Amino acid sequence: MKFRQKQPEEVNVNLTPLIDVVFLLLIFFMVSTTFTKETHLQIDLPEAEGEVVDAQVEVVEVVINVEGGYSVNGNGLINNQPETLRRAIVDQAGDNRKLPFIISADADTPHQAVVTVMDVAGRLGFASLSITTQKHQAEQ
């Protein structure tokens, strides 16, 4: 009797599942990675020489404390209502809407208090609005 020899089966590795897993890992890392775009703009500010002139003009200065209380040109207001603030500004400025309008607010002042002052000043027609800041203690 003649037995046939069984042909050895060719051994191969199916790479399709491996490629699928690697592809899914690649997609996962691409989606979960965050990219930050940092832009740094360097500018050189112009310098000026000259003497400081102490020409004090009339201004309307509104000071806002940490609780959101208002003071117009050093005069404290009885409440924080926009109408009270408007009356105090009109009393100080009269009909002159070209006066510089300065807002000095504490660093911890509620944002709404500053926005209220800006809104009242805009409705009254003040065009020259500035917000005061102070240098960091290490810079002084």
Portion of residues in helices? 25-40%
SS-based structural class?
A: alpha/beta
Terminal CA distance reads: 108 Å
Query: Which residue ranges are poorly predicted, with pLDDT under 50 across at least 5 consecutive positions?
Result: none
Q: Provide the CATH topology of the domain at 60-139.
A: Nucleotidyltransferase, domain 5
Q: Give the C-alpha Rg.
A: 35 Å
* Largest sheet: number of strands, sense, barrel closure: 5 strands, mixed
Quaternary structure type: single chain
How much of the residues is beta strand, in percent? Answer: 5-15%
Strand order of the largest sheet: 3-2-1-4-5
Structure description:
By secondary structure, this protein is of the alpha/beta class. It has a domain at 60-139: 2-Layer Sandwich (Nucleotidyltransferase, domain 5), CATH 3.30.420.270. It is 31% helix and 13% strand. It has three helices and five strands. It has helices at residues 16-32, 82-93, 111-124; strands at residues 60-64, 70-72, 75-76, 101-105, 129-131. It has a five-stranded mixed β-sheet, covered by helices on one side. The longest helix is centred in the N-terminal third of the chain and has 17 residues, at 16-32. The chain is rod-shaped and about 125 Å long.
What key phrases describe this protein's structure?
alpha/beta; 13% strand; five-stranded mixed β-sheet; single chain; 5 strands; Nucleotidyltransferase, domain 5; 140 residues
Topology:
Blueprint lengths: L15 H17 L27 E5 L5 E3 L2 E2 L5 H12 L7 E5 L5 H14 L4 E3 L9
Helix pairs in contact: 2-3
Summarize the structure.
By secondary structure, the chain is α/β, with parallel strands linked by helices.
